[in-house]
TrEMBL record:
Residues 1-38 are annotated as: Disordered. It comes from the Bacteria. It comes from Asanoa ishikariensis. Residues 1-10 have a biased composition (Polar residues). This is Uncharacterized protein.
Length: 166
């Protein structure tokens, strides 16, 4: 899903359309995320919903895929290439469609398995529960939770490794 055919790029690269090479990149290169001017944004209407595919660094790989499944203008799921290697390694989900991500899943080491899950249970914009796969074996083995939603961790749990040596 992270590699896509550049022949579908919708932008005329020589035009001044907001995405072409002759456009002023101001606002992108100096932005807080540090992105250069986007190479292309493709919008597709599929099965009653909308998909936006963005190649922000011009390498021919999707850096962001945003899905608006019910075409209401709110992105329910977004996939992101967080390190620029061409893999969509981060998933953000907005279950209640309030415009704020309720869950983030990330593949840190590139093995295709989720290594970090952060969840915002009470919709205050802060992660209330974070779980980690610390040894990258495909199982979550460390958890930090804010049970009273004050922004501070209340419980920390770690699964012990029966094969660990000292």
């Amino acid at each position: 899903m992270s590699e896509w055919d550049s022949s579908y790029l919708a932008s005329d690269q020589d035009a001044t359309d907001g995405f072409g090479s002759n456009d002023d990149p101001a606002g992108f290169a100096d932005g807080p995320a540090g992105f250069g001017a986007p190479h292309s944004i493709v919008e597709l209407d599929v099965d009653g919903g909308r998909r936006l595919i963005t190649d922000s660094d011009g390498d021919g790989y999707a850096d962001l895929v945003a899905l608006d499944g019910d075409h209401d203008g709110v992105i329910e799921t977004a996939y992101h290439d967080s390190d620029g290697d061409g893999r969509l390694d981060t998933t953000m989900r907005d279950y209640d469609e309030d415009g704020v991500a309720d869950q983030l899943l990330q593949d840190v080491n590139g093995d295709g398995r989720t290594d970090v899950v952060a969840s915002d249970v009470n919709n205050d914009g802060r992660a209330d529960s974070v779980s980690f796969d610390t040894n990258f074996d495909g199982r979550m083995d460390a958890w930090v939770r804010d049970t009273n939603y004050d922004g501070l961790p209340d419980t920390t749990t770690m699964r012990s490794n029966p094969y660990a040596t000292n």
